[in-house]
Amino acid sequence: MNYFVFNDENSLEDYDLYFETLPVLPLASVSETNNPQITCVLGFETNKKKLLKIRRWLSINEGQLKFSYDDRTFNVSNIIATEYSKNKTFTIINIIFEVDKYCPIKMMPIVFKDNFDNLMIFNEGNYSSLPLITIEGSGNIDITINEFTYCMIENVNGVVTLDSEIQECYEGYSNQAISLKNRDMYGEFPVLDNGSNRISVSSTTNSLTKVTIVPRWVL
Description:
Protein name: Phage-related protein
Oligomer: single chain
Structural class: mainly beta
Organism: Turicibacter sanguinis
Radius of gyration: 23 Å
Helix content: under 10%
Number of strands: 16
Order of helices and strands: EEEEHEEEEEEEEEEEE
Distance between the termini: 25 Å
Mean pLDDT: 93
Number of helices: 1
Strand content: over 45%
Low-confidence stretches: none
């Protein structure tokens, strides 16, 4: 039996919902301007308490969505749920999930502790990605990817993090930001291309000890 999981709750195991037809899942497209929609038509034995339970479940309009027959995890930004038909024994509901165009690939951070001038990463997704890069060291730091120098951060003293997704550079780790360093950063935020990425991180004081990259691959 096929099912979907939304915010860690299973449509089949937790709600006894059965697909009338399997929904068509979108393919990401860089040319799309609107977020795609996934329409699910599901049925269940008519039960007022169960319907209220389903309404509460879907009242949270954002979260993570995964289907049993697909390996992607979709980020949901909105939900529209309506009753399609109903009689004394069976109810059919229509659920429209509005999802982000790209599906993130879950993976652990990639940690480098040496050879900072020749770091290699292969993009496992289908598109370029906007990484989170944390550098431990001091001095003025340059970041070059595939022979293109993206940026320099001046006056680093300990830890600096660049978040290409939100376009912020700050002192400290991603979960312990101390202060913004956007004024000390010159250039562009790094982007990881499709395929191989050769990364060079250098410091004017040769004091780098660790580079941690959360690549944020997307399908």
